[in-house]
Amino acid sequence: MSIKQRKEQEKSEMRTLILKTAMNLFLEKGFENITIRNIAEKIEYSPATIYLYFKNKDEILFTLRREGFEKLYEHQKTSLKLDDPLMRLHKHGEAYIQFALENPEYYDLMFMMRGPVKEMQETNDCDIGLASYELLKTNVKECMDAGHFPVMNIDIVAFSLWSYVHGIASLIIRGRGIMFPEEGIKSMVEEALNFMLVSKTEKKWDLENKQIISGVNV
Amino acid sequence: MSIKQRKEQEKSEMRTLILKTAMNLFLEKGFENITIRNIAEKIEYSPATIYLYFKNKDEILFTLRREGFEKLYEHQKTSLKLDDPLMRLHKHGEAYIQFALENPEYYDLMFMMRGPVKEMQETNDCDIGLASYELLKTNVKECMDAGHFPVMNIDIVAFSLWSYVHGIASLIIRGRGIMFPEEGIKSMVEEALNFMLVSKTEKKWDLENKQIISGVNV
DNA sequence: GCTCATAACTAAACACTGTTCATTTAGTGA
DNA sequence: TCACTAAATGAACAGTGTTTAGTTATGAGC
Question: Is the dihedral of CA A47, A52, A55, A59 positive or negative?
């Protein structure tokens, strides 16, 4: 039994080696430029070997995609410590965009790429991807209960907020944010989040001091 | 000279035939599944012939992309007749999303696809793509002047609003709007636009009657 | 130690892809 | 009719994802 276990572990290690190598190459050259042969060459195996561990190239992409969803979920959870719902939502959006901009290749894989296999995509997202969305909905609900938002359909508000951060992240990733200097992106994102959230209550975030002050955005 | 002109016209007609055929095939099966050979077969020429009219596959994509920018620009201009700046901006966003959802393949080409040739992408967008953005900025400026928005950096507000509609459109195009029934998408978009714009002035759009009434969103 | 089945691996091929180029075909001007 | 030019193409090249038949290594049972 010990040998069988070792074999299984070796198999699993090979899978993660392939995944890790693939992701490194993706980060280096973009996933549309990476071939099975590239990956095989890097790990010094024949291309055919990869097909012993993954059904096809898509399965590699989808596995990494799923990895991305898990990373994002973990990253987002860290923003749930704040007490005030609106502040929490603000931080939530900030964390989302931060993840996207720091892991553009993952984000591309998760939300921007055309999924080759629709079925697989959906089942994949359902598990952990939906969990992220539920997290958002909870947050939105609490903001609504606290009177920060007008009372309306939660799905609409949640989807709207998601759209907002996704739009910001994906436009920047596709290089449409060139009107902002590289180093100014972060503060732009801050102001954009304020523009979305603060005006709903006509208050202004003072994020430096982590408190709410009255006034209008400048 | 007449013959030369005819030749030129034939050349141009062939180009548009290729473009039209390519776009039809894209609409049918998605552009990632269409090959030069597919296009050639459809117009009953050899694959090599296409290279007499286009440098390569990317040039076809970029030409169609540019076509998309022109279509969008024309489409958006129709929404500029409204007098009230905020109403105009609302209509602007509505038109943008409508274009994206009615021409998802164009929209994909324009804003979602990974551009293979960065340089070409930029020059392409500069002409007409930037014109669209300038249109938006003008609109934003007028809203700000009219007191609908807090006074802040116009680029930030413009980019934020663009991000919003882009986020909505691109998430729906990628099938992330499944929490809304197909026939409910349009009204969801309406509510989402209200959520973004109306709360800034604490007024509510009554789009049925095309006028602004006081109150809070429901 | 010696078989032998099983697992791991790979070389070579297949059917594709975008692209190029020598060659053929068609059409015009003299 | 003949020569010249432009248009079109067949065949090839290098590359892709993927499959399969065949080879090598490894552990189990004697």
Answer: negative
Q: Which residues of A touch B117 (CB under 8 A)?
A: none
Chain C: nucleotides under 7 Å from a protein CB? 7-12, 16-22, 28-29
Chain B residue whose CA is closest to A197:
B196
The whole-number pLDDT of residue B80 equals: 77
Fold of B1-54: Arc Repressor Mutant, subunit A (1.10.10)
Question: Could you say which of 1.10.357.10, 1.10.1040.10, 3.40.50.1220, 2.120.10.30 is the CATH number of the domain covering B58-214?
Answer: 1.10.357.10
- Residue-wise pLDDT tens digits, A111-129: 999 876 555 555 556 567 7
With beta carbons under 8 A apart, name residues in chain B contacting A176.
111
Count the neighbouring beta carbons within 10 Å of the beta carbon of residue A181: 9
Residue B101 is predicted with a pLDDT of: 98
Burial class (CB in 10 A: 0-12, 13-18, 19+), A78: exposed
Which residues, listed in sequence order, are joined to residue A203 by a DSSP beta bridge? A214
* Per-residue model confidence (pLDDT) at position B39: 98
Shortest distance between the Cα of A209 and any Cα of chain B, in A, equals: 21
The confidence score (pLDDT) of residue B71 equals: 94
- Where, residue-wise, is CATH 1.10.357.10 in chain B? 58-214
